[in-house]
Specification:
This protein is an all-alpha fold and 417 residues long. The chain contains 17 helices and 2 strands. Helix content is 67%, strand content 2%. The protein is globular, with a radius of gyration of 23 Å.
Length: 417
Amino acid sequence: MLKFYNIWVLSVLALFYFGPIDWPGADRFAPAAVVLSCLGLFNLGSAVGERCPALPARGFDTFVDRRAAWWLGCVFLALTALHVQDITGRFILDPTAYSLAFGDVYSSYLTRLDERQSGAIAMLVTVAKAVVWPMIFLLIVASFRRNTKLLLFLIFPYLASSMMRGTDKETVDLAIFFLILSYYHRVLGRRVVIALGVVAFILMLFAARKMGRYDGIDFSCLPGSPDACFDFDNALSVYVSPSLEFLRITLTNYLTQGYEGLARATELPMRFGWFIGHMPPLQSALCSTVRVACEMSTYIDRLPDHGWDTSNKWASVYTVLATDFHWVLMPFYFFVWGIVFAVSEKSWLQNRDQLSLGCLLLVAMMIIYSSANMQLAISLDWIAIYLLLFGCQVARILSNRPQTAGAQVSSIRVPNA
């Protein structure tokens, strides 16, 4: 999997510099310097992690088959239904609320967000979801290939949330879950056709949703992205389909636009975020409840004044993290993640440690979304998982020191003569 992560990061970086979109930031070396240094330290951390002992198994198999797991799933379903209804006005258990008119769904969702007045009940639901989501996440990991009915029940609210908002995030998340879990369960090879089908479906859904948002609009460049322009006279459009040209530019825009934000952020002075700057939902919650960190100004907050609207554009995981770790120290953060990745992979392969498998999912989410945003801190739900699993795994690695030779000898019991 380490090879895939290297290929993924390098390919997207190359797409930013040499792809079909002429980004202004592609004339600067700063984005490449940041990305390559972080990738290099991630690989170094992985090499160090390979030398660490595997962690003992922490499994949740027995819980998966208990009635409590289903009740927990029901609680998550109810909380998700309340949250989605609050932000979209749609009820996920109402079959008539679903629609394939993706443009209308997304437009309605944005309008609802603008008009919505968040109250105490909505905040309680959000906090409750953040408490429950880590347990649901671990149940998804544990129920894969063990309890298919429970697995489908647990992911339904996640998928329904995507349909109610007309967004791609949840769908892509679930695809990553399926592919990573299949890979580490050694079933991806036998299901490669299914995996390819999932990828093709995601791409088709991505294109359909984006085209639905721009239905009836005549444009030569993506609205709001004057650098992302189409060439409907090229061979792909003329001899295959113009929709593939739309997909090519739109997908390139989504994969690489964060590096343009990164290029502009490197020109701004740093303002320390006290280690909550890379978790905007947490900073917002602290400000609204206890009036803490309200004056914080992150790179994401300041980029709109420098021509990059972060309300509808990404700025990469590196830009978000730099508020707390600076450009110089940020590679060390990835070094730690590299250790966590290698130890978690070894612990799963040797001991079937399901907590480590959950951490491997977190690594995949961070790396795959790295050119876009800090996916592990995009909501209070994900922040709860990020802090709990990452913190727990680092603590386990530090406490799981190999036995010394003297300790091993003293533990041998010599039989009486």
